[in-house]
Amino acid sequence: MSQHQQIYTQLLQEFEQKLDRQLKSKERELLYWIAENQAEEIENQTD
């Protein structure tokens, strides 16, 4: 599993737990984008 997918899965679980509901598709899209950015930042730091 890529760094991006790990971050996304983790965020998704945390948000669904806190909100106590399934996320809407727009919310999922936003989380996906955030996870992508975070993964890129982590990759840039290791260079």
Automatic annotation (TrEMBL):
Protein name: Uncharacterized protein
